[in-house]
Specification:
With about 80 residues, the chain is of the alpha+beta class. The protein contains three helices and four strands; from the N terminus they run H-E-E-H-E-E-H.
């Protein structure tokens, strides 16, 4: 089941950035724990897989593309 696997991967992160359009939602998963429904609505596409692009750097996951977020985290 791709959705369960996707949620499991997201839960392994300590920092989660989810870009949707011009908006970026950041969760510090060591401090807060959004429910699975919230994460699924933001990060999982119709196929049940994580939206593209998804980038994992250590314990940080970025879902979706937002140039400023990439610059901040990778620059």
């Amino acid at each position: 089941m791709p959705t369960a696997d996707s949620l499991r991967l997201l839960r392994e992160a300590s920092q989660l950035y989810i870009a949707k359009g011009k908006k970026v939602v950041h969760y510090d998963l060591t401090e807060e724990s959004p429910d699975d429904e919230t994460l699924a609505k933001l990060a999982i596409g119709r196929s049940g897989n994580l939206r593209a692009p998804t980038l994992r750097i250590g314990d940080t996951i970025i879902v979706g593309f937002h140039q400023e977020t990439y610059d901040d985290l990778l620059g």
